[in-house]
Amino acid sequence: MEINGLLSTGGLTHNEMQLLQTAIDSLGASVFAKDLNGRYTFVNRAFCDMVGAKLEEVVGHLLEDLFDPITATQLREDDLRVIATGQTVEQKEYRRTKVGGERHQYLTVKRPVYGRYGNIIGLSGVSLDVTSTAQVEVLLSESRQFLDLLLSNVDGHFYIKGQDRRYIFVSPKVAELLQRSPEQIIGHTDAELLPELEAQRVNAFDDMVFETGVRKAGEECLAGSRGGLRYFWSVKQLLRRGNQPDCLIGMSMDITELKLAQQAVASSETRFRTLFEGSRDGVLLLDQKKHFIDCNQAALELLGLTGKADCLGRTPVDFSPPVQACGTPSVDLAARYIDTINTEGKHRFDWLIKRPQDGATLTVEVSASMVDLDGETVILATVRDLTERMQYEVAIHQLAYYDALTDLPNRRLFFDHLSKALALSQRSGLFGAVIYLDLDNFKPVNDRYGHIAGDLLLKEVARRLAEHVRDQDTVARLGGDEFVVLLVNVAPTQDAAWQQAKRVAERIRDDLAKTYSLTFDTDEQIQTTVEHHCSASLGMTLFPPCGECGETILRRADNAMYQAKAAGRNQIYLDEGCGQTTSLTS
Ligand SMILES: Nc1nc2c(ncn2[C@@H]2O[C@H](COP(=O)(O)OP(=O)(O)OP(=O)(O)O)[C@@H](O)[C@H]2O)c(=O)[nH]1
């Protein structure tokens, strides 16, 4: 390529011109010159490479020969502007070469070339292909936008700190957390922005990263903008910046919710454990295969076991007798109950346990329900020993229906038996009888020997009475020294029933009239035995198949007893109805 007059400057030697030519050819930029007609008068090698043409195909040719029409028109307008105004033009332009047709971006500087007499004789220019630079800028711009989007939307707090621990960059979330604008944070240290203790903790973390140069991750805790502590999982590492001092780049994720959930799980686990272990009731967990997977101390005690190893992996049937109280085999009943728990979610039932160690059986109440434990559905069974409750129930029943001194049924239970006997009599057509009796001269035993002796006598009366009746009959104590005997299914006719009941009444009267030998401790703790004579006055009434109510029947017997008492005691009187009584004493 030769440098023509447009570029030549007077005074250069041929060698110098050659050197200049070589230098211009070695430039990465395209260098060109044109005359006033727009014909290329000089181009360097880079220009030829750019248009994909040889030197001779360029020099002396026009824009239209080298570029597509649109590009050529644009470039022509620029050229004319330079020539018309005489000004230097610098601009970015896009060109599509004829060769390959790729669109490139150029930064072009064009300036006028003046002739010897100061007139413009053409223009020269330098074009630098900045396509890749422009792409990098586009990429940078896109990356910046993406980063902004990320920083604004990702639930993380991003920050960069210098070696002096001052913030260089903070994402919007950091600003939100610290309740300051980024401008109020950048250039400041944590010591200036956070409470002392928090700043110390954060600094210690940062120091570790700066000192070791190793990426660190860990938990941090800061006071939140809305109060309360907020927990973060922070990852920090050094950011190498060439010649610049390293700085720290960090990302902290807010894990408060997770942390609180973990704490809640941990505390509910603790609560569960406390309740589980502290429960006075036995608590057992069964897996899907109905094997015990956990139990508390109370359960071990209930089952008579010394350690969990004796329980875990075994089934409820392993701790049960072959048959339950209802007569159903334990294995069948257990399967039925487990089915119910599975379908209804819970079930409460009584269960007979057999302790493997000593073979003892005890009744327990089981409250079982399906629960979700660590993602697995298990059965939680609370087992309560019913022995004590059953004892209480028996005691309450005893108090409610039995006389505490003699253990005989009391008035309430007597009436219950009587109403059943009346119903039975109606069905069977058999007569029954009620014998009301009151001891004669009982009071003196209390007066002479004290109530202890009187109590003994009353107990002895109860014992003697029981000897004269069948299992289906009832002997009850109505109170004081008054007793009543209920005879059921006595006879199908009234006469036969009279005779039969009379025989029983006479035996009772004779037996109760026998001497009572009473042994008791005196107030001086001396055991003494006394004898006492007393008898009983008896009033009797029959109840026919279609008789009155229980109260009426008892009143009639009571009335007859008073007649017997009035007749001199130790007598038997029969109530015949309508207030009529007859002595049956032989
Ligand atoms: N030891 C004792 N005495 C009782 C009890 N309940 C009532 N008594 C006494 O029993 C006596 C009953 O009185 P009464 O029936 O009048 O005595 P009684 O000597 O049999 O008189 P008569 O029936 O007229 O022959 C009273 O003195 C009561 O205090 C008891 O549970 N234990």
How far apart the termini lie comes to 169 Å
Instruction: Output the CATH class name of the largest domain.
Output: Alpha Beta
Low-confidence stretches: 1-10
| Radius of gyration from the alpha-carbon trace, in angstroms | 58 Å
For the largest beta-sheet, the strand count, sense and barrel status come to: 6 strands, mixed
Which oligomerization state do the chains in this entry correspond to? single chain
What structural category characterises the helix and strand content?
A: alpha+beta
Please state the overall shape, judged from the principal axes of the Cα atoms: rod-shaped
* Count of extended strands: 23
- CATH architecture field of the largest domain: 2-Layer Sandwich
CATH homologous superfamily grouping of the largest domain: Reverse transcriptase/Diguanylate cyclase domain
Number of helices: 19
**What is the domain tally?**
4
Major beta sheet, strand line-up:
17-18-16-21-22-23
The helix content, as a percent range, equals: 40-55%
Bound molecules: guanosine-5'-triphosphate
Strand content: 25-35%
Give the integer mean of the pLDDT values: 87
Q: What is the fold named in CATH at topology level of the largest domain? A: Alpha-Beta Plaits
